[in-house]
Amino acid sequence: MLASGGGLVELAVLTTKAIGAFLHDWYSKAAGQFGSVVAMIERAAAPVAGVLLACGMMLCGIHFAAHSQPVTEPLSVSEVADGVFMHTGALALMTRVNEGGIANIGFVVGNEAVAVIDTGGSVREGRRLLAAVRARTDKPIRYVISTHAHPDHIFGHAAFENEGAAFVGHRNMPRALAMRGQFYLDAYKRLMGREIMADVKLIPPDQLVDDTLNLELGARTLALKAWQTAHTDNDLTVLDEHSGNLFAGDLVVVQHVPVLDGSILGWLTVMDGIALMQPKRILPGHGPVIENWRAALAEQRRYLERLTRDVRGFISLGAPISAAAQGAGETEKDRWSLFEEYNARNATAAFAELEWE
Amino acid sequence: MSRPGLRLMQGIGIAIGMLASGGIGALAQSSAPKDPWPELASNIFSGRPLLDGTGLLAIEMPGRAEDAAIVPLTLRATLGLAETRRIVSFTVVIDENPAPVAATFQIGPRAVIPVLSTRVRVNSYTNVHAVAELSDGKLYVVKTYVKASGGCSAPATKADRTNIGEMRFRQFGQMPEAASNTRTAQIMIRHPNNSGLQMDQVTRLYIPPFFVQFLKIWQGDELLLEMEGGISISEDPNIRFTYVAGGSGSLRAEATDTAGHVFSGSWPSSGMESVE
């Protein structure tokens, strides 16, 4: 997924951090290792106090981490079902400000162990997800499952590399990482900045799913399914059998325009397969958790079918690919977030696929 | 190696040389990026002068590419009716690409190709130059600017791709404005066109180059056009061309890739629009 900057907000964040860092150094010398924030304020020079109070929470955080390492604030997650936790990402492109946090990522807690499903768009986000797990349980993380190999879902993997977990992915995921991995790392160094990207590592799965695979968490089974090429060529879904909640990855998205990076016809077929599973609830890769998954699938189907119909029309008229990029799917324009960012690309990809029919 | 082949290798060699010297240059100065075109042009065309091609040929590409790995490109021959010379070849140069010489198209000695379209990979914001050689040996150039990135390193190839080498042909209706008997046709070849520039992060090995290098198209026994392409041509090379129809000869194509595979096809040239 591509990104755009957020200039003024970025500047504000950087300025706040700079002030915080300065104050941290100042107070390390003045106040010693530990002490209450109030005591430090009393010792502060009057002109600085105002700034200090303004920095409030930031200073608190920096102060208690005596070695200038910010405390990892746990990612906010909701418990969508007993033992099933989900964080909803921003409906945006990956940026420095949002630290790549645009995907829905989560975890499932069993009697013995935990499985993490997708790790986010940066190692920072991954660490915050880990903190969210640890805030609720100290059971070992047995599995880190990737629903597919897009940056917003896998850039946080390095945060989990010392947890003793097995990394699980679709049989095509190693190849996808090999083909695209370096490109993603380079692209996001430019788009999100070297600082955020510094510790991002591509960690290929050590356990591959050919078709289906069951993972045990202790009286709790996760049923994984590897699908034919759809959103990407390495899509996995994860069904928590206990709660009937299905982590769909980007095979199902809500509000966020579907992004075609695989096969449009394959995706429509896979959606049929997902509907047949009759899950209790579908957890989408982007957008809010919804109760009525049939409605969500219908929306997504409408977009993909419209795109297919429009592109086939252009092809049969003998129009060139650029015409389809401009015109296909236009009736869906106001129904989806990030439509302008992705629809023309979707149309181009669909054209290159459908002209072979 | 054939002359066009030499040119292609030259192009890659120049690019690597420029990357290397550019790196050293960057240490010495913190300046605006250097325009690679003068040196590219001089090397690719052996120092021959390039005249302004406005009015003789045109290049059309989107200002901003939707998908950097599939960027449409159209070349038009816009020679006036009084023009006695003909276009002998087109060369497309994507200045900032790792292999800047995207393709050369040799036009058959008795062929007339007013329009030629294909799809290319664009690796970063760049000028794209089209150079036509005319039958008097003179070179003419036009250019356009494209905003795109990552086309060469993030191709669309999906796993489970089958039928490499499959060729499809399509004929479109007659051009309405044609006083002469022109037809438009399209040839597509199923091929990953791997650039050889992607590195497998885990093994640190490069995925080897594997791409369609030559494509020849005949009408009956007459050569219409011969493309020599490189890694800047998109996956599933797609050539759409307008040509002057002659006789009842069928259209025939033959493609060769870097592994030496030869793919061929032939299709009757009908009087009506036909879609394969």
Please provide a brief summary of the model.
With 357 residues, chain A is an alpha/beta fold. Helices cover 42% and strands 15% of the residues of chain A. Chain A has helices spanning 7-31, 37-43, 46-64, 123-134, 151-154, 173-192, 194-197, 264-276, 293-316, 321-327, 339-354; strands at 78-81, 84-87, 105-109, 114-117, 141-145, 166-170, 207-209, 212-216, 221-226, 236-240, 245-247, 281-283.
Descriptive report:
The complex is a heterodimer of chains A (357) and B (276). Chain A is α/β, with parallel strands linked by helices. Chain A has 2 domains: 7-64; 78-253 and 266-290, 4-Layer Sandwich (Metallo-beta-lactamase, Chain A), CATH 3.60.15. Chain A is 42% helix and 15% strand. In chain A, the strands form 2 sheets. Chain A has a 7-stranded mixed beta sheet, with no helix packed on it. In chain A, strand 11, helix 8 (264-276) and strand 12 form a beta-alpha-beta unit. In chain A, helix 1 (7-31) crosses helix 3 and helix 10 packs antiparallel against helix 11. Chain A is globular, with a radius of gyration of 23 Å. The two termini of chain A are 28 Å apart. The model of chain A is unreliable at 1-16, 18-42 and 44-66 (pLDDT under 50). Chain B is mainly beta. Chain B has a single domain (3-266), classed as SoxY domain (Immunoglobulin-like), CATH 2.60.40.2470. Chain B contains 2 helices and 16 strands. Chain B has helices at 3-28, 37-44, and strands at 50-52, 57-60, 71-77, 87-94, 101-107, 115-120, 126-134, 139-146, 167-172, 182-189, 212-219, 222-229, 238-244, 251-257, 262-267, 274-275. In chain B, the strands form 2 sheets. In chain B, strands 1-8-7-4-5-12-11-14-15 form a 9-stranded mixed beta sheet, with helices on one face. Chain B has a 7-stranded antiparallel beta sheet with strand order 2-3-6-13-10-9-16, with no helix packed on it. The relative contact order of chain B is 0.17. At the A-B interface, helix 6, helix 10 and helix 11 of A face strand 9 of B.
